[in-house]
Amino acid sequence: MSAKSNSHYDTLVKHFQSISHFEHLSALGDWDQATMMPMGGGEARGAAMAELAKHIHSLKTAPMLAQTINDAKELPLTKQQQANLAEMRYQYLQANVVPGELVEAKTKAAYRCEQAWRQQRRDNDWQGFKPNLENLMLLVKEEATIRAEAQNVSPYDALLDKFEPGMTTANLEQIFGNLKSWLPQLIQQVQDKQKSEPNFTIPNASAESQAKLGREIMNILGFDFNHGRLDISSHPFCGGVASDVRLTTRYDEADFTSGLMGIVHETGHAKYEQGLPKTWRGQPAGVARSMALHESQSLFCEMQIGRGSAFLKLIEPHLTSILSSPLTHSQLTNIYTRVKPELIRVDADEVTYPCHILLRFEAEKSLVTGELAVADLPDFWSTQMLSLLGINTDGDYRNGCMQDIHWAVGELGYFPSYTLGAMYAAQFRSAMETELGCVESQIDSGNLSSVMGWLNDNIWSQGSLLSIDELMRQSTGETLNPTHFKKHLETRYLSR
Amino acid sequence: MSAKSNSHYDTLVKHFQSISHFEHLSALGDWDQATMMPMGGGEARGAAMAELAKHIHSLKTAPMLAQTINDAKELPLTKQQQANLAEMRYQYLQANVVPGELVEAKTKAAYRCEQAWRQQRRDNDWQGFKPNLENLMLLVKEEATIRAEAQNVSPYDALLDKFEPGMTTANLEQIFGNLKSWLPQLIQQVQDKQKSEPNFTIPNASAESQAKLGREIMNILGFDFNHGRLDISSHPFCGGVASDVRLTTRYDEADFTSGLMGIVHETGHAKYEQGLPKTWRGQPAGVARSMALHESQSLFCEMQIGRGSAFLKLIEPHLTSILSSPLTHSQLTNIYTRVKPELIRVDADEVTYPCHILLRFEAEKSLVTGELAVADLPDFWSTQMLSLLGINTDGDYRNGCMQDIHWAVGELGYFPSYTLGAMYAAQFRSAMETELGCVESQIDSGNLSSVMGWLNDNIWSQGSLLSIDELMRQSTGETLNPTHFKKHLETRYLSR
Ligand SMILES: [Zn+2]
Ligand SMILES: [Zn+2]
């Protein structure tokens, strides 16, 4: 094997670099659409973005790829190059396995379903939503079946794999089964404990001052403003590209609490992006490892750091200066650790949140196997909400099975990532404390650098060079272990 | 000819629609870079934009185009379709005539020259700038020669044609010769007349209040905020796409005057874009006709409307409310009609401005023919500035021949557009007044709708469906006639 014969690999590197340039433009278009674009610009933008998506798809399914990838496998590549090649192969298979007509049919059905859902949700119109969802579900199942056959796994496993490569239904059933065995009781204990906490009013803060505070907090968390921005959108997100991370939040002048924690959360996502390995920029091995790991980083910032007593003390002087009336430290801690079963997932606290995921995991798994019909979804929902969180949702479709956008756009297999992320975050915290000592006391001393350094070395800078299991073992000594999450919740919510 | 055989034309329509989708993304990238992008994002953005430019170029030079365009010429097309096809052919030729290696060499030389120029200009470093410009000029001449051969015109004509299709050196020499015969004397007369005008201080206005005022004035001019935005950049420009026009300005708190008139100017560009024919969106016939006509619309807003007494009266109440101390109407008129020979083109008033263009036209024409060597440019500049505006610029390269970016990026043939635009604008005004009556008195009554309606019907909605001469004849009864410009200057600057 001569250097020259590495040209197969070099061809691939160049090709995937091209793809990443077009994905850069796609990320910019998405961000602009959510933050800057006037309504009237939507139609032309939509057409341009569709053209771009088509072009990216054509690059990902370029006929030369199959052979070139196969040829490159025979080359004397470094371990990292091999990892990159494996990711190329994975992306190629993901893009090629589903026939173009099915992708298009699903995209159209998803668009139709989502557009109608926006109004139907407001109207609590389950009867209107149902046929669209049924139609879309048929296509989702078709896609899942095709992917399953290609990967020799079950259809729902194939959907999970899109977001958390390697994750299986069996594995999740074990993890979530464990969770289900102790979480409802823990929720009850926490609620009993918090019963005596006093009520108080949340003071006002202008949107402008919240944005200023947000930037101060991003600085504390080490967000690099030379490679990113903070803006406003109706739903907070972290977009852009690794060299220019665009995050957003929204400001409620009567309640700063969720906008502020939204920034902390999205900054966690942003730190992962900003910390991705620079030598692998634009290559499949250079992107974030998985959706659950991405969420683990946002939840590390929000849950492990952000809602902890030390961090709240750290930001208190900044916060106090923008509030119409002061909050004590205990009130602030109160706000950010209050546990209360709620109807809406995105408003849930970190203790009850996994219940929302358990329910959705069971539902989508059964929708894909066919054990649950779309028509029976509302009943399933009511029963589960009552059993898990003690809330009656009968007839409240809007705040029940119609609350999330995921299914309305045909995205199944994603929900578990949220709770897996919370578990990964707790596990990272444990491993970090073994190495660095108490995280709270480091934050208390105003120094986040060793905490961030640990995340950078163990997670961000690894990109997709390791498998998830390899990354977990290398950084924490074991694969995913939900015990750490349980310990985290008990420590924060029961022991103080 | 059956409907089916129109498929050649339909293929082209689809192809150019694709190109326009990618150009949409290019416009977004440019705008974002100038307004939103953090510095650190520049490298990756540059790579993505270069990839996009390469892709657009490959679409514009697609091998199938030559034959398909030829075949489509035989089809029974409508007159407008024929115009669209002619524009397709023109774009195809423009993109194909210059060999890829030359385009790349020129792009690189231009990039190098511009990057160095940014610092060299600050340092007044002509000796440093000269070799870069000489090198770049060789490539510009090579490009001009190739274009000239393909179009059977002179090299400088070929450069002019890129910005003002159909314009020739001979034609410009006549137009600018006429201008030169009366302008210096007129400048002298205006200066004599303005000698007695009193001096006063320009009051402060916060950047925030200037932006608010800017939006009010854009509303008065009928800018459609559902299809556009106003932002800040270091150099004002009008970017984006027709359905989402992004204009920018900059604010100087100690001197609102240029930021404000910058908005009026860019709004003129924006109105043209927003008024382009909707049925031809994404097609070559649907874009603005030429650079000079684009400038005619910005200058119509800025010069014909914006600096007129009636408009200044219209915006006075809005303006007064943001100033630290009031300005009288006569002071305001004074500010915006003050004539004074200056070193810098972009700071020039509308009377002396054409002298800056006369000089640059003579210089670039002679640089291309070889009658003027780059080394002799500073001497040429000094002589001309002294003769045209009575200013000595010996040794002041920074404010002399190094002041503009155009030559530093190898853009020759563009400068004449500015003054052609001013002449077109005056000619439109004359024709409009013949049809609608006095423009000043319409603005005085606060009604700009018939003025804007006339521009919409005669210019904006025509896109590139007519040639420039056809458009001028149809809208004003004659081709470009500099007399109207002379009359405009005399009326505004000598008769009051
Ligand atoms: Zn998140
Ligand atoms: Zn302009």
From TrEMBL, chains A, B:
Q: Does the keyword Metal-binding apply?
A: yes
Q: What Gene3D superfamilies does the record tag this protein with?
A: 1.10.1370.30
Q: What is its EC number?
A: 3.4.17.19
SUPFAM superfamilies xref list? Metalloproteases ('zincins'), catalytic domain (SSF55486)
Supply the alphabetized keyword list.
Answer: Carboxypeptidase, Hydrolase, Metal-binding, Metalloprotease, Protease
For this protein, the record's Pfam families field holds: Peptidase_M32
The domain of life for this entry's organism is: Bacteria
State the family named in the UniProt similarity comment for this chain. Answer: Belongs to the peptidase M32 family.
Q: What's the protein name? A: Metal-dependent carboxypeptidase
Q: List the source organism.
A: Shewanella schlegeliana
